[in-house]
Design brief:
Length: about 100
């Protein structure tokens, strides 16, 4: 789902609100999550999941085009762990072959 599709769905479900206002709401939510992660905080949305930041250590990698070994610097990456309710909704009565 794209951001614009999310805004459209919110607009459809809340016709009394302007699409521009709903777009601002989505932007504020995403900005707040991003700022919290930048400061090292964990963001937990009960029933949905938790966002956190994990450190990837430096390592020796390989350039796939040339085969040359390169040093990959350490970096921080976002991590999402799905909540119990989200996992249950995704797995209840779903045949894995239907996905």
């Amino acid at each position: 789902m794209l951001r614009s599709e999310l805004v459209q769905k919110l607009t459809d479900e809340n016709p009394h609100l302007r699409p521009q206002d709903l777009e601002k709401v989505v932007d504020v939510i995403l900005d707040e999550i991003t700022e919290a992660l930048e400061s090292g905080a964990r963001v937990e949305l009960r029933g949905f999941g938790a966002f956190s930041v994990r450190k990837r250590d430096s390592r020796t990698g390989r350039n796939p085009r040339t085969g040359e070994t390169v040093q990959v610097e350490e970096k921080y990456v976002p991590f999402f762990k799905a909540g119990k309710e989200l996992r249950a909704r995704l797995n209840d009565g779903v045949d894995p072959e239907d996905r």
